[in-house]
Design brief:
By secondary structure, this protein is an alpha/beta fold. The protein has 11 helices and 13 strands. The chain has a domain of 192 residues: Rossmann fold (3-Layer(aba) Sandwich). Strands 3-2-1-4-5-6-11 form a 7-stranded parallel sheet, with helices on both faces. A two-stranded parallel sheet has the order 7-10. A two-stranded parallel sheet has the order 8-13. α1 crosses α7 and α6 crosses α8. The longest helix is centred in the first third of the chain and has 19 residues.
């Protein structure tokens, strides 16, 4: 298939691009202007694949009609976790998705695969969730055969959550911090399993017009997730639980004072909810038996602290 891909420079996007090309698909990746170093990072070994960058800005809606023209399918991955300037949750998750959907309708694509997230709903505890829901609704109401995928925490080479937690644990003096009581549950899923589901969603009839939760083999509490990350990082510091009200207060101050706060109030609200699901439909629809979280998707040669 010829696939129009958004978000190719992100963590999941880089893995998705590699997977699509490895399976023989042609890929057009939307770019709003790529720094040279990032372009090399993404392109890497794909120079011989059927791959090209095309201009496209999902928030402004520019270049999308041309980029999607002639493509069979769209995989839309773009999302943000922190608002910056005009890249607000509403602009990126909702209106940006609407722009991509409209371009796909004009081009007559026959499949739209959308990246969403567990916990997405109209009355979410954070704008991240409610705007992702609006984006899902744009896809569902488009008239294009679709598949919406909602993963839990995604881990693997180049991820954000595990990498950030490792850095925090290594730099924290004496103890490794745990937000709240550590009881919310998660199903961390490997990026390789995520890309398998996305690529199969392009062609599997059983995935048509479905919204599917994605999770790994292990349902773990936050305590267990962070303990495994500490083990992978070689960090032997004891856990110290920080009351969530104190975390919230600190995050609120950090958001006002810092350009890039380490955590936001909304992120903590979503963390309190957890991110778990029934993986039965995923296994049935895509034939995927997901791997567990042991090893955190990392190589064993880690620094000990």
């Amino acid at each position: 298939m010829k696939v129009f891909l958004t978000g190719a420079t992100g963590f999941v996007g880089r893995h998705m691009l590699e997977r699509l090309l490895a399976e023989g698909h042609a890929v057009r990746a939307a770019s709003r202007g790529l720094p040279e170093q990032k372009a090399r990072l993404v392109q890497g070994s794909h120079k011989d694949g059927d791959f090209q960058w095309v201009p496209g800005h999902i928030v402004e809606g520019t270049g999308l009609d041309h980029g999607v023209q002639g493509c069979d399918a769209v995989i839309h991955l773009v999302g943000i976790i922190v608002e910056k300037g005009t890249n607000t949750f509403e602009n990126v998750h909702h209106l940006g998705t609407r722009n991509v959907v409209e371009a796909a309708k004009k081009a007559g694509v026959n499949r739209f695969v959308q990246m969403s997230a567990l916990g997405v709903r109209a009355d979410g505890v954070a704008p991240y969730q409610s705007t992702k829901w609006k984006g899902e609704e744009e896809v569902r109401q488009s008239g294009i055969p679709f598949c919406i995928l909602r993963p839990s925490l995604i881990f693997g080479e180049g991820d954000g959550f595990v990498t950030q937690m490792m850095a925090t644990m290594r730099s924290a003096p004496l103890f490794r911090p745990v937000p709240g009581d550590g009881t919310p549950k998660f199903r961390p899923i490997a990026v390789e399993d995520v890309t398998t589901c996305f690529v199969r969603a392009l062609t599997y009839e059983s995935a048509t017009n479905q919204t599917v939760d994605l999770g790994g083999a292990d349902e773990l509490t936050l305590n267990e997730v962070l303990a495994e990350i500490a083990r992978c990082a070689g960090v032997r510091k004891p856990a110290a639980h920080i009351p969530m009200p104190l975390m919230m207060a600190g995050a609120s101050v950090a958001q006002k004072l810092l350009k890039n706060p380490p955590v936001t109030v909304d992120q903590l609200r979503m963390l309190k909810e957890g991110s778990t699901c029934d993986i039965g439909p995923m296994k049935r629809i895509f034939g995927v038996n997901p791997r567990g979280f042991k090893g955190c998707g990392r190589s064993p040669d880690v620094t000990t602290n």
